[in-house]
Specification:
The protein has a single domain, classed as Ferritin, core subunit, four-helix bundle (Ferritin, Up-down Bundle), CATH 1.20.1260.10. The chain starts with a helix and ends with a helix. The protein has about 140 residues and is mostly helical. The protein has four helices and no strands. About 35% of the residues are buried. It binds fe (ii) ion (2 copies). The site of one fe (ii) ion has 8 residues, from helix 2, helix 3 and helix 4. One fe (ii) ion (FE2) binds next to helix 1, helix 2 and helix 4.
Length: about 140
């Protein structure tokens, strides 16, 4: 297990989660019209889930002797009041997250089993989000 590379990827994942917390909270507050009824709670749930994921990853970084990032990923959070755009940017975010978690699982490999299981749970949650976003947009 290449710890340095793993720490680097975990910090990338943490940056994306910190960004997702903000992005989803922003969309939950800004969603307008009839879709607000369903999408505001959905975005709030995603924001909270991202906060939970960030906490798990942050603790994994500390466990490995690394320093967790404190800043979000700098990829722009685009303001919108259009729900289709919001869903599109959500899908983009979930796809990036799933990608990074897939890499992290490969890097952990046969190493820390507890960490692997925790990351796998997060990875599966991102995949579920991707699937439900795809259905919402179809
Ligand atoms: Fe996440
Ligand atoms: Fe997510």
């Amino acid at each position: 297990m290449d710890v340095k590379q793993l720490l680097d990827r975990l910090n990338v994942a943490l940056g994306w989660e910190l960004r997702a917390v903000n992005m989803y909270a922003h969309y939950a507050a800004n969603i307008r019209g009839i879709n607000r009824l369903q999408l505001s709670p959905l975005f709030t749930t995603e924001s909270n889930e991202s906060l939970t994921h960030a906490d798990i990853i942050r603790r994994a970084i500390v466990k490995l002797g690394g320093i967790p990032v404190t800043e979000r990923n700098t990829h722009e959070i685009v303001h919108s009041v259009d729900f289709n755009e919001m869903l599109q940017f959500s899908l983009e975010t979930e796809t990036k997250a799933a990608e990074v978690y897939g890499e992290i699982m490969k890097l952990i490999g046969g190493g820390d089993q507890e960490m692997y299981d925790a990351v796998e749970q997060i990875y599966l949650a991102e995949l579920r989000s991707i699937e439900s976003l795809r259905l919402l947009m179809s």
